[in-house]
Design a protein that fits this description.
Blueprint: H1 16-32, H2 42-70, H3 75-97, H4 104-125, H5 127-131, H6 133-139
Length: 149
């Protein structure tokens, strides 16, 4: 398999388990890249979506738990993004299971956008909370009830 994108430490959120999950997203992206323009890629796309769906259920739950535990104040907003992404993955997988065609380019662009925008943008925001939860908790106010975390 040709590697389209490689993991780098710049992508790290400071938690080895979550970083491993993010590497799995990269693996899915790299598995889709050769399918762009391939004839009849549906079976292989279906396998990537199955892996991705299983993965996101675990990853999102663990990431949200880590954010809450570390006192990350925007975890609810982050969870909303996760819920929307899961819905997209589930719907794409359902489309294939019901015989509808899923464009490999669309799926590739979706995961690539997720990788770049979400992991490198949104996920990086909670890194300081994971690295120093005690310092962040002392200086962060809970947005839901106005009390310190």
């Amino acid at each position: 398999m040709t590697t389209f994108i490689r993991w780098s430490e710049d992508m790290s959120v400071g938690a080895p388990d979550l970083d491993a999950h993010h590497r799995m997203i990269i693996d899915c992206l790299n598995a889709l890249h050769p399918l762009l323009g391939a004839p009849d890629p549906e079976d292989r796309i279906s396998e990537v979506l199955r892996r991705l769906e299983e993965f996101v259920l675990i990853h999102f739950s663990e990431e949200e738990q880590a954010m809450r535990k570390a006192g990350y104040p925007d975890w609810r907003q982050h969870k909303t993004q996760h819920d929307a992404m899961y819905d997209v993955v589930y719907n794409l997988k359902s489309d294939i299971e019901h015989g509808r065609t899923v464009d490999a380019r669309h799926l590739f662009d979706l995961i690539y956008d997720w990788l770049i925008r979400h992991i490198l943008g949104e996920d990086k925001k909670y890194r300081p909370f994971l690295e120093h939860p005690e310092a962040q908790a002392d200086s962060t106010w809970h947005r839901g009830n106005g009390r310190p975390v």
